[in-house]
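Entry 14: structure prediction run for Methionyl-tRNA formyltransferase. Input pasted below.
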Amino acid sequence: MRIVFAGTPDFAVPSLRVAAQRGEVVAVYTQPDRPAGRGRGLQASPVKLEAVGRGIPVFQPESLRDPASQEQLRALKPDLMVVVAYGLILPKAVLAIPTHGCWNVHASLLPRWRGAAPIQRAIQAGDAETGVCLMQMEAGLDTGPVLLEQRTAIGEAETGGQLHDRLAELGAQVLGDGLGLLRAGIRPVPRPQPAEGVAYAHKLDKAEARLDWNRPAVELARTVRAFNPWPVAEAPVAGERLRIHGAIAVDQAHGAAPGTLLGASRDGIDIACGEGVLRLRTVQREGGRAITAADWLNARRDLVAG
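Run finished. Output tokens:
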């Protein structure tokens, strides 16, 4: 089975490995190298690095809308195109090229959380469960019928980064199941997505990382988890701006104005919220590294009573 794989970030790498085990990956498509790091030198995507290491030809078009790119893809004679967090829109002409069309590994239980940031939005919304879908792609954004899915509970303390890594592996498993069926001559039965329950996972914006102390502590704690490791929540605390890597909500009544420092101990830094208290566990000062609340308190002796 001739597979063309299209993907870009770390999330797609486990799926590329499975595709290479279950079929012949004749080419990899990935985003062009981008400037990154302090020196702003060009950096290859994780998928490109994996493909080069496996000796797979790599293509990096800026778009798949031009006829030359489409003819290049057609010449590869793919049986299937697998798309995982590629970052480019596939036009109808491209979707029609592979014999079995294009499959997409998506990190949510569709139709919930279509779009760019399904993992973080699921945590932010307080979802108890998420999963991965293997979807037959069509022209709409994540609207295609679902071929296979796997569900998983979201841990109460699980961060966006931890869930990302788990779903990347789970997505590879689902893809492997689908490829195994196809190789056996069994095409997974497509299940149209229901019209109800559609939610859009908008791309993360750094401005969202600024915590609003007027919000309930439960919501802020979920945002802290979702935005770890990026963009990382931040807020003013006791006269300095802290990035917040870890926090929990405490169900505690108080009469203080939102944003008031209620107390600081080795257990955490308690901040009054619109409802309840947010206890900061791991923070980062400007220009510093992530530290525990106890270490922060050692540096802020002015906050220690007596």
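Notes: The helical segments are 13-22, 46-53, 67-75, 92-95, 118-124, 160-183, 217-226, 293-299. Will compare against the previous run tomorrow.
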